[in-house]
Amino acid sequence: MTDALLAPLATALDGTGQLVDAVTDEQWNLPTPCTDWTVRQLVNHLVGGSRLCTRVLRGEPLPTLDQLGRRGHEDQLGNDPVAAYRTSSDELLEALRTPGVLERAHTLPVGTLPGPAVVHVRTVETLVHGWDLARATSRQMPFPDELADHELTFSRDLLGHLPEGRQPFGPSRPVAADAPAIDRLAALLGRAPEQARSRRPSS
């Protein structure tokens, strides 16, 4: 049961990991659809988010808001961003497989959520920032359409229950009804797929 619940997250982490693996030396400073972040800063955010979630799952309290703000500026990647991403992903999955973890509620920056919802939140975070990374580096999306479609349904429901000001992404943007599920998920969470496509850097 645990492996089935974690399979979508493992797939999302692996797909985004493929994108991180493919980043070339000259691409780390490219802009991303997250307008305040370069490629390196985006990957840094993903690694930091996985590490923070792992700490919470292991029973450590969530840092205070001012500490969370400082953590956002800490270097999580060191000299080997690929290894940092892979290690943080493996540790997150290991923490989620710990007996009893998925049966408990955990407090993350987005709020206090049951274990399965934590898995969904990390899956969505990984998919959407993977979308950002693919756009920034002109790569194909490595995610199965059914995975993005499933998380789109979850995200619509979650956004309807979050307190004002706690949304982790930007306001929803318009997108074609027949767009790929990953584009529709990105648009729901504040991305503009057509705009991002029009300013993709050349390979």
Structure description:
It is a single chain. The protein is mainly α and 203 residues long. The protein contains 8 helices and 2 strands. Helix content is 57%, strand content 4%. The longest helix has 23 residues, at 115-137. It has helices spanning 2-22, 39-57, 65-71, 81-96, 115-137, 145-159, 181-188, 193-198, and strands at residues 105-108, 111-114. β1 (105-108) and β2 form a beta hairpin. The radius of gyration is 16 Å and the shape is globular. It has a two-stranded antiparallel ribbon with strand order 1-2. The chain has one domain (2-198): Four Helix Bundle (Hemerythrin (Met), subunit A) (Up-down Bundle), CATH 1.20.120.450.
Output the keywords.
mainly alpha; Four Helix Bundle (Hemerythrin (Met), subunit A); two-stranded antiparallel ribbon; 2 strands; disordered C terminus
Task: Summarize the helices and strands and which ones pair or pack.
Elements: H1 2-22, H2 39-57, H3 65-71, H4 81-96, E1 105-108, E2 111-114, H5 115-137, H6 145-159, H7 181-188, H8 193-198
Antiparallel strand pairs: 1-2
